[in-house]
Amino acid sequence: MSAYLAVNLCVIALPLLFSFDKRVAFWRKWPAALTAIVTVGAIYLAWDSHATGAGHWAFNPAYVGDLRLAGLPIEEWLFFVTVPYACLFTYECIRVYLAPGRVPFMRPVLAAAAVAAIILAFLSVGKGYAFLAFSGLFLVLVFYLVFLPRLTEERSFVVAMGIFFLLFGIVNSVLTGIPIVTYDPAAITGLRIGTIPIEDFVYNFIMLAGHLAIYRTILDRRSA
Question: Contact at 8 Å (CB) between 11 and 171?
Answer without folding.
Answer: yes
